[in-house]
Amino acid sequence: MIKSIKNINFFKPPFWEDRDPNLEQKESLFDYRKLWIGVIAIISLVASVPLFVLTFLNLSIYEKAIQAEVEYPLIRLISNTKNSISFFLEERKCALKFIVENNSFAKLSKQDELGKIYTDFQKAFGGIVDLGIINSKGTQTVYVGPYNLKGKNYENQEWYKEVILKEYYVSDIFLGYRNMPHFIIAIKKMLPNGDFFILRSTIDTNKFNQIISGLETDSTSDAFILNEKNILQTDSKFFGKVLSSFPIELPKCKAVKRICEITDHNGLKWLLGYTRIPNSPFIFALVKKPLVLRSGLNSLKKETFYVLGFSLIIVLGVVIFISTSLVTKIYYADMRRLALLHKAEHSNKLASIGRLAAGVAHEINNPLAIINEKAGLMKDLFIYSKKYQHDKKLLDLVESILKQVERCREITHRLLGFARHVDVKMEEVDLESLIKEVLSFLHKEAEYRGIDVKIIKKHTIPLIKSDRGKLQQIFLNIINNAFAAVSKGGHIIIALESPKQNIVRISITDDGIGIPKENLKKIFEPFFSTKQDKGGTGLGLSITYGLVKKLKGDISVKSEVGKGTTFTISLPVNP
């Protein structure tokens, strides 16, 4: 009926075929085709979702790694260049501030003295084109440099207005009177009489070009300086000459370095890194074509999706294999269940036949009693009759009749005992006496194996109203199990107590092998047995559980492997 699991046909599982025709009247637990498809779908989903997540996570991490590989040199270059430009400006600012603080206005107003300071400045620092003193009316009163700017008035110049407000100012690149791109650093100094003057220096913009040209950049990169109005302050390889407008608007940012992707007016994408130069209007920018990033990432995506597809094929194959094996085992277990139900039905029929036989035995008991009485009367008549009292043959025949009647009586009593307790019959029961009666059946075994059985009463135990026969069967089953669990010379303690007014509790404790923790939840299930190798059917405790519940009681078990087991039965005094 049930095929071997080794013969599973994974292309056409056994549950795809019709079931055993002998079991067709029983209902299966599942629609195995739907179960199989459902299991495959669920396991495939559970297995593939992490695979997809890991794949896209891996792509994301790799993309970030490639991006970092491209961006890190840019960030480092931007940071170093920012420091170089910032140091260049700060150095000249501090030098000019030193000149203002350590020289009087009268001294600085002398052409020779300012010329000497200019010469010393160039020797010490360099990078300036000229020096000039501008009074509070905006007129340049003293000038040292290559241009004829003495007497020029800057009152309406933007940088002049700014330096009056801030006392220190770095301008962006502009043309001015000389019509040449340049920028200035100006420092305002207050005089004791409340007036002020400004020391103004024009900075050599070639220094910016020298710093930028010294950067290690490839043919796909371009470095330049912008101002806040997006005007180029130095020449750009890709975007034009100084004072040209930069065609791409920079994203709004704070004075920190950052890398982002931008698109120019031709639709070309660029990697842009930029940072503000502190205490100045300048922004240093570095752009790079992101060709390497795109090509490497596209190649990786293609390879990753190939691996993902191959992995999904393997996962699906394994899922089908496992699902088929799992559902087939469930199918065979269901077939075994149906077979057991078939056997149980057969056993039920046998029980009915037994009850019928018991009824017949009861009917036979009446004529047997008459035969027994009549045969006994005949024996008495023969014994007291002088004619037959010495007829041994006749007396032996009567004795044979009596023996056979006794034999029939024993047989009928056994049949009656089989069916006596089918229905619950309530009567007053002394539990201690009943347990002793059950133990009398096991007295010889206990004596032979040296098993010590004790009955302990913790309180006065009241008589309970229950079914005597069912109680006998309950205690016989549990005590039998205790005998089977203990070894030679073991101990069994039966404790009786009445913890509550209407409750009697019986605990049967042995010091046997114990029950594993994982089996405790299944101990009362039908067909579960820890003694299958000894011929156990797995029905004893299941029947016991049902009988206790029928008597409106409760049963529980505690056990520890190697220490023993305790079954506790609680019964109502008056159910």
Automatic annotation (TrEMBL):
Enzyme Commission number, as recorded: 2.7.13.3
Residues passing through the membrane, by range: 35-57, 305-327
The protein's enzyme class: transferase
SUPFAM superfamilies named among the record's database cross-references: ATPase domain of HSP90 chaperone/DNA topoisomerase II/histidine kinase, Homodimeric domain of signal transducing histidine kinase
Catalytic reaction(s) noted: ATP + protein L-histidine = ADP + protein N-phospho-L-histidine
Gene3D superfamilies (alphabetical): 1.10.287.130, Histidine kinase-like ATPase, C-terminal domain
Domain Histidine kinase: 359-575
PROSITE patterns reported in the protein's UniProt record: HIS_KIN
Record flagged with keyword NAD: no
One MF term in the entry's GO annotations: phosphorelay sensor kinase activity
Record keywords: ATP-binding, Kinase, Membrane, Nucleotide-binding, Phosphoprotein, Transferase, Transmembrane, Transmembrane helix, Two-component regulatory system
InterPro entries assigned: HATPase_C_sf, HATPase_dom, His_kinase_dom, HisK_dim/P_dom, HisK_dim/P_sf, Sig_transdc_His_kin-like_C
PANTHER family tied to this protein: C4-DICARBOXYLATE TRANSPORT SENSOR PROTEIN DCTB, SENSOR HISTIDINE KINASE
Name listed for the protein in its UniProt record: histidine kinase
Species in which this protein is naturally found: Desulfonauticus submarinus
Lineage: Bacteria, Pseudomonadati, Thermodesulfobacteriota, Desulfovibrionia, Desulfovibrionales
